[in-house]
Specification:
250 residues; mainly alpha
């Protein structure tokens, strides 16, 4: 028997969840607008800015939040919950790495610059809160959660290759000079990988329970899923269909 989806703490398209998601969008837009404005005033390259993992994860969080606001759960594609969980993991990685590896002691520090506070702390916290309160309608296949590791791993490899070519390092733990050689890079990168794996486990556990192929088939054949609160409302309505079922039988 397939495991039941746990009851969400907030309605997916309720006022509270929508306000939270609009807040995420507003924070992402405000932080990006302010940072891009400063870079343009300084004549700095926007390519470098959008090359940062934090920037990419933050922008993706805004896109996911917009999608959540604009489209009801019953109309979202089946793979959307996988993307949402992955982006939540990535933006959490950016935040946790920043406050533990790059800038220890910066967590919720009022002296932290606005853009950094938003992108490294407030957006990650809001994304994981949204995922925990309304974890989606599709059961998370926890055995596939490892796929959330692919993008950060590929990013790290590409960042090292590009940095060696142009001589500009985005993150000090990837820089053999700042990390005291490639051994230091390996040690620090292993630490970041450990953070990532812990976050993958956390996000997977916060999502709906895992399921096998049979559960997916039954969900698909049954049509759009109905959240528990809607099921209760339908059960409370008087059943009128079938009252006259026997009046026209041959």
């Amino acid at each position: 028997m397939a495991s039941r989806l746990r009851r969400p703490l907030l309605r997916d398209h309720g006022v509270a969840s929508q306000l939270l998601r609009l807040t995420i969008v507003g924070m992402v837009v405000a932080a990006e607008a302010r940072r891009v404005g400063v870079l343009l005033d300084l004549g700095a390259s926007l390519i470098v800015h959008f090359s940062y993992f934090t920037t990419q994860a933050s922008v993706l969080s805004g896109v996911v939040a917009i999608w959540l606001v604009a489209q009801p759960a019953t109309h979202r594609p089946a793979w959307f919950d996988w993307l949402r969980a992955a982006v939540t993991t990535w933006v959490l990685l950016a935040g946790v790495t920043y406050v533990t590896v790059l800038e220890p002691g910066s967590f919720l520090n009022p002296a932290e610059p606005f853009q950094s506070l938003v992108q490294h702390q407030l957006v990650p916290l809001a994304m994981v809160l949204d995922w925990a309160l309304t974890p989606g309608r599709t059961r998370t296949r926890r055995r596939r959660a490892w796929t959330w590791l692919i993008y950060p791993a590929v990013y790290a490899v590409v960042a090292v290759i590009v940095a060696q070519q142009i001589g500009a390092w985005l993150y000090p733990f990837l820089n053999p000079v700042a990390a005291d050689g490639w051994f230091g890079v390996a040690v620090q990168t292993t630490g970041v990988l450990g953070i990532l794996m812990a976050l993958v486990v956390l996000v997977a556990l916060l999502g709906p329970a895992g399921s096998g192929p049979a559960t997916r088939l039954r969900t698909r054949d049954a049509g759009p899923a109905v959240p528990p609160e809607d099921q209760a409302a339908e059960a409370a309505q008087p059943v009128s269909a079938g009252v006259h079922a026997g009046s026209g039988s041959a």
